[in-house]
Design a protein that fits this description.
Order of helices and strands: EEEHEEHEHHHEHEHEEHHEE
Distance between the termini: 46 Å
Structural class: alpha/beta
Shape: globular
Oligomer: single chain
Number of strands: 12
């Protein structure tokens, strides 16, 4: 099922064009990682797709319908966003994650048994259920990052947008969270777009890889097809070595 389509998208701010002529189609089950140098337009793309920034030109379609045809509440049911900054709020972790169910709740009805079950299952999967009564401000950065990710997953979105989701996580939690998100995409008909600076993590967990350069898509496709020495040199201005085995493909800068 098609989740997202971008047609000739130009995006940015009133005084600055950041993204130009972006064409993209993403289906349910796909985990798309965006890899690019700083300033290439990664965060601008996420803000535009989420509806925070209006497109300057072109069109965005969500499940075949123009994004500007969705109400805020409808958009919140379909799209969840995890930003790169961690809020510090005076709520328990359980309260924070439960907020992810608000777009699905009738204002007069309150939480249902299903909502409580969804929240508990997500918190258990992310590994924070035992912290449910802790205040968010008392948690480490890594724990707060997991809470914010859990809140987004509790929305049960069809499109999940993540800006550097592993920035505050140790290596074990990086792998655990990305594997969880990839599994949810595959088995719950969700599409994922994630900004990931660690290209080796992107190679391991992505079904599709996008390289952005100067506001345009430099390459897009299956990781093993687009992560070439030529593309990486064009992107970063340096040489890379690419290694593959039966388990994975990974790259290292060639500093010789």
């Amino acid at each position: 099922m098609e989740i997202l389509e971008l047609r000739a998208l130009d995006a940015g701010y009133s005084s600055k064009l950041v993204l130009q002529d972006v064409h993209l189609m993403i289906n349910a089950g796909q985990f798309v990682s965006i890899v690019a140098p700083n300033g290439a337009g990664k965060s601008t793309l996420l803000k535009t797709v989420s509806g925070v920034l209006p497109p300057l030109n072109g069109a965005i379609f969500l499940k075949g319908k123009p994004l500007n045809g969705f109400s805020r509440r409808e958009t919140a049911r379909e799209i969840a966003v995890v930003g790169s900054e961690l809020p510090v709020l005076d709520y328990t972790t359980l309260q924070m994650v439960t907020m992810g169910r608000f777009p699905h709740i009738c204002r007069l009805a309150g939480l249902k048994t299903e909502d409580h079950s969804v929240v508990q299952a997500i918190m258990e999967n992310v590994g924070i259920w035992e912290k449910r009564l802790c205040q968010c401000r008392e948690l480490s950065q890594g724990e707060r990052q997991k809470v914010i990710i859990a809140r987004a997953l509790a929305q049960k979105p069809k499109l999940l947008l993540l800006d550097e989701p592993t920035a505050h996580l140790d290596i074990c939690n990086q792998f655990a969270i990305l594997q969880l998100i990839k599994n949810l995409a595959l088995y719950q008909d969700m599409a994922v777009i994630a900004v990931i600076h660690d290209i080796n993590l992107a190679l391991q967990f992505s079904t599709q890889l996008m390289f952005l350069k100067n506001g345009r898509i430099l390459a897009y496709g299956k990781p093993q097809d687009v992560a070439t020495t030529e593309v990486l040199k064009s992107l970063y201005g340096m040489n890379f070595n690419i290694y593959s085995d039966a388990a994975a493909t990974y790259v290292r800068p060639n500093l010789a």
